[in-house]
């Protein structure tokens, strides 16, 4: 049976109907609680009929709606006298100057302001992360370069060219100095 009803109605309609039923039940419970409390206070009050309850319900909701709604004119002043009576007074901002003064004094009196490390706040160069990542690779290449230079020098020593060896060592020393100078730039 439930599946047949679901087939006929959409899911949203079924949910709306369920909510409507729940609200009606809640209204009945509130009215019963209200009538029980009034019966306990005044035994002479008789139970009302369903028709009169519905009329009072519609009247009370209409009154509540008019009472809770009030117009707010933010951008203009109303011309009509009826509207002028409904206008709310504009809200006045609270005075926060004293609170701000206290906050400023507290911030200036903090001892932490002198302990900040300026090096940690200084901006880094744009390519600092690239240099960091490439430094390991460059260190490997530097070791390989040094091994290759040692190998070349040892081969020349074995060949017996001492004059060439002296010039190779000097050129190697100059190359190392030049490479260190270019790294510092």
From TrEMBL:
One Pfam annotation reads: cwf18
Tell me the organism's taxonomic lineage: Eukaryota, Metazoa, Ecdysozoa, Nematoda, Enoplea
Q: Name one GO cellular component term.
A: U2-type spliceosomal complex
Instruction: Tell me the domain of life.
Output: Eukaryota
Q: Which gene encodes it?
A: Ccdc12
Q: What name appears for this protein in its UniProt entry?
A: Coiled-coil domain-containing protein 12
Organism (species): Trichinella papuae
**Positions of the region Disordered?**
27-73
- Biased composition of type Acidic residues is found at 41-59
Tell me which InterPro entries the record gives. Answer: mRNA_splic_Cwf18-like
